[in-house]
Amino acid sequence: MKHFIVYSTKLILILLFMNACSEREPAQFTGELNEVKLITLNPGHFHAYLVQKDMYHQVDPRVHIYAPAGPELENHISIIENYNTRGEDPTSWDLEVYAGDDYLERMLEEKKGNVVVLAGNNQRKTTYIKHSVDAGLNVLSDKPMAINTGNFQLLKDAFESAEKNNVLLYDIMTERYEITSILQKEIMQMPLIFGQLEKGSPDDPAVIKESVHYLFKYVSGQVLRRPPWYFDVTQQGEGIVDVTTHLVDLVQWASFPEKIIDYERDIEMISARRWPTAVTRSQFESITRVPEFPDYLQPYIENDTVLQVYCNGEMNYSLNGVHSRVIVKWDYRAPEGTGDTHYSFTRGSKANLIIRQGQEQNFKPVLYIEPSDNDNLDEFEKVLLSEFTKISEKFPGVELKKLDNIWEVVVPEVYDVGHEAHFAQVTEKYLRFLVDGKLPDWEVPNMIAKYYTTTRALEMAMESE
Predict the structure, then answer these.
(1) pLDDT, tens digit (0-9, with 9 covering 90-100), for 345-403
(2) Which residue from 324, 327, 369 is spatially nearest to 350, judged by alpha carbons?
(3) Is residue 358 part of a domain?
């Protein structure tokens, strides 16, 4: 793989950034070969390189990277080199790297690409987004795009700027591509099986999403090296505004598909709480390869040996009157043979749709259909088997398996492509949006609603303490 690194610490005057925001017409996309030219800005999270795990017809193999020099940049380059040299289906990325403290100013001055990819330290991410769209650059951003209420206000401004400059700002929602989530959403739109989405109550919500994650994990066959700042909630964001972004997105996407959500009118935040996960010094070193806690983590350290990371959270809210609960939990390392888990419950007037991912499911997500009325099971089964043929036609091979008084949705392995493959699926969809010249009408207001929900939940959780 060809790449070169330029080191500089020269400050670029803000005037250069203003010059970058010229009035010239933005590039129009047609889907032609190599017309999309990526800029990766300050990659510090593994999602940045997962976007490049595959090649795309529309994307130029030359990718411009702007970042400060250091281990995060080196790791990013190393992983992409591994993709380029792997034995099966190698990529052919050609990296042009600028490494210097003025990486943002240099990127805005040079504008060597037309799509900025963001996945890294979240402390400045919203600022990166705003500068990029102000400069007429499209943005494909990892979540979260905002980690506090101040960021949320800036993100709203960024969406206004993106519309003004005719560029697309979009976040990477990989969980929409997980097959059981897709099927849950599909069946929710089948009134003869699901009925109508119930309203629930704060104590008994109609929609529940819960995920459990682990700090120590493998990505692309290697132990994931997390940067030390990942454990600083002022830089990474707390759990209640990070992973919950996916869960809140799924609530909106499945419960009210393609419906515009007005966050000021349609969302009522009810309660929220947060709590820490304890990380020992040795655990911290095994994940970061840094032997000592950095000074910026001192406020969260107990007895000089245990780091308290606020990566757990719960929020309760109503969306268009439907009561929902979102929970995220983190631990150090999953037991052998297990991994991240997901639980999803949605109550319909005729059936509940439940996704479980525990030991019984071999830690793979499985969707179940549970009738609400056990007194009319024969009639429900008759309707279910008849209506489910629509699912089987749309998703060949997907079928039902009866288990006592519930039904398991059996999904062939061909649909289980894995989390890492979802990044290519999101990117492919974004590339189609670029050709269309717009996002679906509901996407922008619903992204705004999503980040209002997460950042307001954090604010409420902190206020309650």
Answers:
(1) 999 999 999 999 988 898 899 999 999 988 889 999 999 999 999 999 999 999 999 99
(2) 369
(3) yes
Same structural domain, 90 and 233: no
**d(C-alpha 344, C-alpha 361), whole Å:** 14
pTM (global) more than 0.70: yes
CA distance 320 to 327: 20
Neighbours of 316 (CB within 10 A): 21
Same domain, 159 and 267: no
343: exposed, middle or buried (C-beta count within 10 Å: 0-12, 13-18, 19+)?
A: middle
Q: How far apart are CA 66 and CA 350, in angstroms?
A: 53
Range of the domain at 306: 176-422
If we measure between CA atoms, which residue out of 397, 401, 393 comes closest to residue 412? 397
For tokens 């003025």, the residue is 102
CATH of the domain at 206: 3.30.360.10
Question: Looking at the domain assignment, is residue 445 inside a domain?
Answer: no
Q: Which of 121, 140, 171 is the last residue of a domain?
A: 171
pLDDT (tens digit per residue) in 58-117: 999 999 999 999 999 999 999 999 999 999 999 999 999 999 999 999 999 999 999 999
Residues 371 and 355 in one domain: yes
Alpha carbons 181 and 179: distance in angstroms, whole number:
5
Look up residue 248 and give its amino acid: V
Of 338, 121, 297, 123, the C-alpha closest to 213 is 338
User: Which strand (E) or helix (H) includes residue 201?
Assistant: none
Domain assignment present for residue 220? The answer is yes
Q: What is the CATH number of the domain that holds 83?
A: 3.40.50.720
Q: Residue 413 CA to chain centroid, in angstroms? A: 23
